[in-house]
Specification:
Layout (H helix, E strand, L loop, with lengths): L2 E14 L2 E14 L3 E5 L6 H8 L7 E6 L2 E2 L5 H11 E4 L11 H11 L4 H14 L15 H12 L6 E5 L7 H18 L2 E5 L3 H4 L4 E6 L2 E4 L3
Helix pairs in contact: 3-4, 3-5, 5-6
Length: 227
């Protein structure tokens, strides 16, 4: 199986006054095509830092990030941005929907901003809504949608370009259990249909156990979780 994402010897730290706080210590992780990986750990354990580094939104102090075999550290910022946009779909805990626009427009505008023409963007936005069974809610603004529906719109905004990997930072953190499982079901369905890899951070062990493998981040170290 080809490797979609590889993290090698990643170190990340910051200083609080004179105190050095080590967030990630010599961390290694490899994700194959279509595999589903969960990262668990307490709040403040470094899960978001790990995901930000994996998605090329943040650079580590040291170590290498390979996306589709390319070492991001050796790329110019413009090349890194292109690599990220082409291969990575990122889902935040906060869905960041534009409240003044309806569901269809939220997706449509994302496509426009990424260079697609108007007619294609309108058609593709509706197609994406159908994937998560929300085409009947296309004209509803976020305030008229449930938290789970809003997050499912955030999901399709992240997969508009059929990325090789979806990276999700606590995607169900603000949802109740019913909506949480609906969102995870959608992510798993999309991963299976498109052979897309999935890397997500979660506090919910029931969600983590739906993935192929679970890693625990503790004291900067990433270890495979075993019950």
């Amino acid at each position: 199986m080809s490797e979609i994402l590889t993290l090698k010897n990643i170190n990340q730290y910051f200083f609080q006054g004179k105190n050095k706080v080590e967030v990630l210590k010599n961390l290694n992780l490899s994700i194959s095509k279509a595999s589903k990986i969960a990262i668990i750990g307490s709040s403040g354990s470094g899960k978001s830092s790990l995901l930000n580094i994996a998605s090329l939104l943040q650079s580590p102090i040291s170590g290498d990030v390979f996306i589709m075999g390319k070492n991001a550290a050796r790329l110019k910022d413009s090349e890194k941005s292109f690599l990220r946009k082409k291969n990575i779909g990122y889902i935040h805990q906060q869905n960041s929907l534009l409240m003044e626009f309806n569901a269809h427009e939220n997706i449509y505008l994302t496509l426009l901003l990424n260079g697609f023409n108007t007619s294609y963007a309108k058609e593709k936005a509706l197609e994406l809504l159908k994937i998560v069974n929300l085409d009947n809610r296309a004209l509803h603004k976020p305030s008229a949608l449930s938290g789970g529906e809003q997050q499912r719109i955030a999901i399709v905004r992240a997969i508009y370009n059929s990325p090789e990997i979806i990276i999700a930072d606590e995607p169900t953190g603000n949802l109740d259990k019913v909506n949480s499982y609906k969102v995870i079901d959608e992510l798993i369905k999309i991963s299976n249909i498109n052979s897309t890899s999935l890397l997500l951070a979660t506090h919910d062990m029931a969600i983590a156990k739906q993935m192929d493998k679970i890693y625990q981040l503790n004291d900067g170290l990433l270890l495979e979780y075993k019950e």
